[in-house]
From TrEMBL:
Spans traversing the lipid bilayer: 21-44, 56-75, 96-114, 134-154
Keyword flag Transport: yes
Molecular function GO labels: transmembrane transporter activity
Function: Part of the tripartite ATP-independent periplasmic (TRAP) transport system.
A single cellular component GO annotation: plasma membrane
GO annotation terms (biological process): C4-dicarboxylate transport
Principal location: membrane
SUBUNIT field: The complex comprises the extracytoplasmic solute receptor protein and the two transmembrane proteins.
Species of provenance: Pelagibius litoralis
Protein topology in the membrane: Multi-pass membrane protein
Protein name: TRAP transporter small permease protein
Domain Tripartite ATP-independent periplasmic transporters DctQ component: 30-153
Family, per entry: Belongs to the TRAP transporter small permease family.
InterPro entries for this protein: DctQ, TRAP_DctQ
Length: 163
């Protein structure tokens, strides 16, 4: 029987695959919407109603769905000016400090986005032309930032070869 420890990487890879699939679907939706809007606008003089709003919402969802994947893969832009000038201990300390700063910033963003989600929910805020609710996007962004903050802290606690 597999232990709990053995099941964790499998659960993590399934979650990563699901988020990757979601990002792919969102990107495919953005591409499809843009293509249909351009074709119908120029050939038939009939643009897709609310295409701009849908594009904004899909793009926000795509960015925040991809944030935990980017954080987990360690693919954020990094500037390591001192890496070649420092020893392994200082490099570990700088990597840990960067992870803590990133985690704290992401948790602050999550907190502020959650407050914004509450306000949008209470106000019943919707988009102008399609009347789509805005709160779910704020909630997705808050959840994504919180997950990414946790991932950043966990990556900072791991040895460099495991992170």
């Amino acid at each position: 029987m597999a232990s709990h420890h053995d099941q964790e990487p499998n659960r993590q890879s399934r979650l990563t695959a699901a988020l990757g699939l979601l990002c792919g679907l969102l990107l495919f939706g953005l591409i499809g919407l843009t293509c249909v809007d351009v074709v119908t606008r120029y050939w038939f003089n009939a643009p897709v109603n609310g295409a701009f709003e849908l594009t904004e919402l899909l793009l926000a969802a795509l960015i925040f769905a991809a944030l935990p994947l980017t954080t987990g893969a360690g693919q954020h832009v990094e500037v390591d000016l001192l890496a070649g000038l420092s020893g392994p201990r200082l490099q570990r300390a700088m990597r840990w400090l960067a992870a803590v700063v990133a985690g704290v910033v992401l948790f602050i963003l999550a907190w502020r986005l959650a407050l914004q989600g509450l306000r949008l929910s209470e106000d019943g805020a919707v988009t102008n032309s399609l009347a789509l609710p805005l709160a779910p996007v704020a909630w997705l962004a808050a959840l994504s930032c919180a997950a990414s903050g946790l991932i950043a802290l966990l990556r900072g606690a791991l040895p460099a070869d495991k992170a």
